[in-house]
Amino acid sequence: MRKGLFLAAALAVLAGTAGAASAAEERWVVVYTEKPSVAEFRDYGLVVLDSVHHPPIAPLLEQKKTVIGYISLGEVENYRDYYKAVEAEGILYEKNPNWPDSRYIDVRDARWTRRVVEDLVPRLLRKGFQGIFIDTLDNPAELERRDPAKFKGMTEAAARLVTAIRRHYPRMYIMLNRSYEILPAVEGQIDAVLGESVFTEIDFEKKGYRLADAKTYQLQVKWLKDAKARRPGLKVYTLDYWPPADAAGVARIYAEQRKNGFIPYVSVKDLDRVLKEPAR
User: pTM of the entire structure?
Assistant: First the structure.
């Protein structure tokens, strides 16, 4: 209850800085496990699933849902079947400290672009996915900021990778996670952008959840709204994290993001279940 009151109070303070635009009552969901039943997806129009561990796709397509598969382009997890091949190419860097099973990748390397375009994306399409959800492509810009000499050109290469995917798959649905540095360059190549951890975020040290600081929140809202203003047809989604037991807090996150003009979803760190929006 205290968390709910605290979150409600914080939202009230920040509401004055957020726009008052309203989003259509659209719903989306992201789940990275095969456990949920098809019936649990009934209320969602856009469904984002893991590329390997996912429920049956065909029944979801029969329900006229847009179903897209996860693909990590800025780093590679060590449990992916192509990890060893990429490692042998010598284009992997250090581990992501928050996700130790995953290592950053050199997106400048033409072999990675070729693997993505000729192998990884086709795999998803053959499974029945209608498109891709691009994750971790904000890493190249962050690496270039940390070490401009070592990672020179990573940001530009990330944008080129998105453009290459669109060029090869002109009708495929593409959703991009964050990647705000390259968003102005690629927003014409994608169908949707996701703001992850906009108002709330995962607290990796305490293994819980916390509010994003006010400046970060306001910046993300601005970047997302600016992208929508530049390209009105772009869909803008948000993914925030909060304890499901705090129904009041979760409900207020949904309300705030809809007021921003975004299409929200609230879940837990592992994205391992379908969490319905609390009743309004």
Answer: 0.89
